[in-house]
Structures
1.
Amino acid sequence: MTNAVILQELRALMKELNVDAFIVASEDAHQSEYVCDADNRRAFVSGFTGSAGTALVLQEKALLWTDGRYYLQAENELSSDWTLMKAGMPGVPDINEWLANNLSSGQRVGIDSWLISAASAAATAKALAAKNIDFVAVAENPVDKVWAAHGRPPYPQNPIEVLGLERSGKPHEEKIDEIVAQLRAADAVAVVVTMLDEIAWLLNIRGSDVEYNPVVISYAVVTTEDVVFFVDESKVTAEARQHFGSRVAIQPYQAIEGFLIEKAQTGKISVDSSKVNWRLRIAVGESLVEKISPITLPKSLKNEAETRGFINSHIRDGVALTAFIHWLENHVRANPGTFTEYDVAVKIEEFRGRMDGHVGPSFSTIAGYGPNGAIIHYKPEKDTALALGVDSMFLLDSGAQYRDGTTDVTRTMHFGTPTQRMKDCYTAVLKGHIALSTMVIPEGTLGSRIDSAARMALWKLGLDYNHGTGHGVGSYLNVHEGPQGIGFRSRPNEAGFQAGMTISNEPGYYENGAFGIRIENILICREVNTPNRFNDRKYLGFDNLTVVPIKTNLINVDQLDEAELQYLNDYHRHVRGVLLPLMQSTFPESVDYLVQATEQLTRA
């Protein structure tokens, strides 16, 4: 089955539905970044497997939009039937602009209303209406019909995992009570919760329905009396029923639409249109009250138990990753050209699998040697992966789910002798990484206001990178979470930093056809004591959760100032101190390597 055949069959169904263009987005009915195999429609239609992108199919054209993380990957994966639209590049219109400028008055654009947020649907409808182009919800998704004939995988039916109080730090009943109080204060009868990580956090459950994300495919509606949990009942174990108690009523997953139509007759329903899909927004009708999800912010503020889990899981992860890098360096130097990027992604799981509480990866491992390192979210495939050698740089971005925390760490290394160009670029990235780590900011500062700190050293060289600098991380949940983030663009509903938020710190540089560099740690935001408190504001700093040595053979030490050098040495002193005891008991063969990798750096 070729991509051309899929497009041909899809276009025939589009004619039957009387739509001139059909949008196939990446998301599922819950606006998830990662989706289960049965919901991976855009990848099926286009062949592009990156986690972000939108496909547009017309009778004579097929286009795919994706961001800077995936330009090179998309170029490699898309067939000649597709045109790549590099979102964010000068002169490249977004999908709404393209449709408005290329379709004629009276033409129709179709989409599955379950698979687009209400806010995005409204924006698209408005943009197209200005040109008298109709935006319509199709009765049946034509992609699903085509896919069914070619072996679409079934939806998962995995059991729910109960998250005990020792890990959640707060009973689900208390979380529910806080939301109920907000509903009553707003004179609303319910709030719709569709994001899978928000449901998992609210009910203190986890699952395995979506690869990398420990979530359960479900919906929840919090009313002024209880929570209605819409889920495949085969997933609800006896333990889960006992855990839910009388506060959680279970209904079939498909019953959500009918429930909301009925509930809307009784009063106002709170909806976050940036998260709830268009179909459910229609079900709520005139009873809608537009409000940001009441779960997004509390979920991002890690409590004492969650913080403790983050610290402990990162120590275990740091031991496993450091031991793996030790093994990898020895193996590649002794046997260059025999161990591939794909082998790295497999082998690293062996090391992490020896750690207590390990569940699996938190995302698909990015392991790029040489030119593949310049593909920001490169995923090595068995048949095409490059073999690692000693002549170029190797970028390794990986993470794990542990039952008490989620990790995400990137280290860039060179197993031979790096060039001066490589060292100059690496040192600039490191300087940006340190600048962000050491910032002190007023509480409430937006991440978009501090992004430039991570880029300044690169800018001085005329360099930059095409991705954001930081994302929040869930507590044994999704590796990407909001509402906080660090990037050069402000985001809708972006929240300023508060103590307890996690954030990644991952500046980089990518030289097409040559190498890629990224250094990533996970930080946690904490209140700091300052000599003054202007306007009686609190001030915040960042602590490193990630404890993995930073490669020093790529650093131009003379390009670091005294404060940067001191930071690096202090960080390595901390890494050695927290990793050494567990390293001695789990990977004793890597103890000497840990000591060597964390030696104090001095000027020549």
Note: The radius of gyration is 25 Å.
2.
Amino acid sequence: MVQPESYAAATAASPAQESSSSGTDPCLVDYINNEGVPQQFDIAAPSCAPFGFFFQDKVKTPEGEATVIGLRDGQMWLHVDGQIGAKPFPHKDEASFKNAGIEKMRDSTAAALDLEEGFLLGTHKVKQVQFGKDNINIIMQNTNGPCPLVAIANALLLEGRITLANDTTMVTVQELCNKISQYLQTHPPTDPQQLAQYQDYMAISADLLLNLQQGMDINPRFDSNDGFEASLPNSIMGILGIPMYHAWLVDPDFEGCEVIKKYNYDELNTKLVCLAENVPSSPVTAEGEVPLVASTTATSTTSSSDPATTATEPTSSPPQNKDQQQAGEQKPATGEGPPQQQDEQQQQQEAKCGTKRKRSEAELAQQGTYIRLFLETTSTQVTPYGLQQLRKVVPPCKPAMFFRNNHFSTIYKHTNGNLYGLVTDIGYSMEPFVVWETLEAATSEFFSHDFIPTEYARRNDIVQKILRHHSYTKQLVENVYDELCQGSAKYTFTLGDVVGILKTRHGAQQRPFPSDAVQEQASLPSTSPQQQQPPSADVATLMDLGFGREQCEKALADANGNVEQAANRLLM
């Protein structure tokens, strides 16, 4: 069966980046940097302690609020709100961070716990996204390892069959298992066949659900998108009514299509091993090695009628006459015909047997070539033909599970006919415009909650917020935005950066006070002349954007006196 890698295996296979001098073993998590490149960061509590910050802490910085990610190359990396990915802050200890104006806002859940590997596997970050007309929470994946439990939970969350409180930021595996179990207890299947499975499953549901965080053995067939050999772990999808698919289909135009379609994944690997042992001309190595997919287990056995297992058995003897059949196998009687004729007949029989044996071995060797070629050329466990068929079989507007590249994910078919995968990589947990991605085999593009390409969604959001309070033309704002995107700071700039360039080049062009700001000013109680002190220069600057004094003073206080960040708060 295909067994997805565990987190421990994944991190063991990756070179650890030395990030602290504490001598403690690192606890690594994948996260994107400010250039959008995934990297590994050490989030172990002993490593982070000298800096005074821990994984997922919220802090105030001169650039705005930020989230602590972890250590890399001896530096603490933070993800500043509104920017892409994490970047390093060159401060060596807690005191130097405070001197730089970086202070903790609140402790994360992780700071109170010993962040060993077991905790990482047992806890997941939660992200709030919009789905249709509702705001829902989805579960983010903390590691690159497979987690069918996350995919199952997200499918149920998208459909509203289970829910999380709006203010949830972290959730444990135990909490997810409890919610799924509670749903199963109150929603038993109505299908009689599934009801029998349901009763078997409920007896071991607690342990089975918990084990799903480590992965799930899966044994796909290559002739249909929903072709999986039945097992108790994957039967939970049928009980929950969550379809499960793959796109690892053999193309009908492939020369060995009929050979591949006869077997499942386990059987293909077992057949390769048998061919290596029994067919000398097979292209498979003598040891039966199949250097194709990591962490696989071939447990099934081929049938005794399979020619691959009988390739070395003696070939059948030449046809016998009736007397020979009754007397058992006998050599042709000597003395019948001239000796030269007898020799010629024996040579013809031997040649015929040898030809049959060679033909059989050649056919089996060709089967081995087909199997090996198919597995080697589809090592990502997706084929173009499989994706083409997947678009046809997945029903629209119904979340489903998808298996690809030793990983489980949640997919959704939009009414436009396109398939999208829910983005659950923790590196995108603070990217509001990254919710979905395409399922193309070669390339992938990110989309917002309303299935607009992420680049355009972010651009439209910033442009509309600026136009709400300024009288610049839309084209002018878009040009400045596009200019920043083309520079080295792509996706790391904020709304305030765009406004700053516009004001520098074209002057302040704020709109009149919004109607709500006017009403706010009118509703304020009258004060004596002694109380009506003029606003500070910073507050006056913010009021120039078209906001009331009280709003500006609050925004400035929340931004720790940083005018640019206060402006971003008001304009957001």
Note: Residues 4-23, 108-121, 284-335, 513-531 have pLDDT under 50 and may be disordered.
3.
Amino acid sequence: FFYKTLFVLALVVLVSSGHAKRSFHIDWENDRFVKDGESFQYVSAGMHYFRIPHQYWKHRISAAKSAGLNAVQTYVAWNVHEPTPGHYNFEGDFDIVKFIKLVQAADMALILRVGPYICAEWNFGGLPPWLLGRTSQVRTADKQYLLAVNQWLEVLAPKIKPLLYANGGPVIMIQVENEYGSFGCDHDYISLMTTFFQQYFGKDVVYFTTDGKRDWELSCGITPPLFGTVDFSPADNVTEILARFRRHQSKGPVVNSELYSGWCDWYGQVHQTTAAEPLGATLNKLLSLSVSVNLYMFHGGSNFGLSSGASDYETVFTPQSYDYDAPLSEQGDVKLDKYWAIRNVTEKYFPGNKMPVPEDSKKLGGVPLKLTLAGILTDQIGPDTLVKKCPLPHTMEQLGVFEGILAYEHEVTPGQPLIDVELEILGVHDRAYVLTDGSFVQVVRREEEVKFNITAHKTITIIVENMGYIGFSKAMLDYSAEYKGLKNVTVNGCIWTHWNHYKINVTDTSRTTEQISSVYPYKAKSWKGKTLLPKGPAVFSGEFVLEKSQLLDTFVNITRSWSKGYLLVNRILIGRYWPDAGPQYTLYLPGVWLKEGMNTISLVELQSYMPAENSIYLTDKPFIDGPINPDA
């Protein structure tokens, strides 16, 4: 009796002190997850904290819960947390600990896709581009890559480990790598990464991989003893894919880690939309088969700043919007057809959901904007922006410049002008804007082979834009495919030497030229039917006043009066715009980034501007499915 009483008292103390052992594991023999001794099946909302202003995290999580979802799945974007080596950012929109705690406060589980490669149509697949200054052999057992990964995990893990389910947090699963079977077939590398993860995060969490639906992807990606999961869309044959998956992993629960609720957009291609009915039907079938599901995406969000990436050898680029035609739009509004397609299914398997449908937020519209010429981008060229003088042009990676714009300038020998010579720029990545003696003469697109005649008495300036690193496929490993800048310049077929390299800051809109009025007398050239800015890429700025009641989410509509460039509001880089290519014409501007009173707005326009009424304005409706031009 004494020992029984002692045991009961010890148990009471243990429970009351909040240290009762929580557990989440895989029951391989019975093909299920077990959470605190009970079978567990999840439907998670794919959303990425780094694509959402942190002020809106709670709303997005609540919207997922109202749809009947019991978990959230997010990637971890290494490159936003360590933008430069050894300098870390876990504040504001990148406060991952706060995001995870908000998920827990909503009584939802969290699946964490650490990677460190994540794809996500994100710049360089979430890897920091500065890695390319050390090695091009990312996602391999290369020593420099593994050293950087270990240093990153050493910083990240102490923040995440207390939030594991076993330690009282909501994190039930952690993903190692991502869709590796689409990239390589090195099981030793995946096993080595798993060892690192266990070293830093411990063994009290389920580690898993995610791979595509094809045999070769599953064969190269699934690496026992890691738990394998699969991706596929509502358009696929569920029975066929699950049978194929079982040939590669015969036991344990089944998870679709990316059931696609829509699809991503690319510049110059039609906006992607998908129907709600197949999504609901496929979700219903999967849940009836005891499959756990992640909806990719439940809420897509935005590619703010310079975060959008590129894909594969085709090199198509992601726009600022990552709406994904998801059930919750880019701006957090409910798409009722997809929302109810999901909620009607989840109610069958997880009954009792009494939460109301989230209300759409009020938007700000009808605000005209007036911008005037404020400066020329080449005004930044000078001693303080000089990176290096070299005999031959260097790539951005060789110079340690991993985003934005690099200007290459050749100073013509005095008394030896170049008269009507043939210029060719070799290996442009991703887009070049060519000026001679300060006048804009040509645009050269990625890998475009074009020769054109120029005359230069003083300078040849080539402004090269990095439009985002490839984030998918083996092209990430191919430095000949994925560098930024240019390789060489020829004049009349001869390699041209002596180049100065200048780093251009697209967020520096404060510099102004002393003689702006002298810009327009130049005879402007045209490209693709639009008149080029006479003196090259330029900054246009303006101001607008808002009352407190107008501090609402809105959209900046940038019409085809403009061509391509960057939008800044209140000195925040909202993202890239490219109405010449489409399909996105509005950029989502969160109300939390606006101010009562005076607000500032700037466009860094790289190519053309044709003055017109209402060429730019604030609207309450998104326009991301407009006309396209693949040849922009």
Note: The radius of gyration is 26 Å.
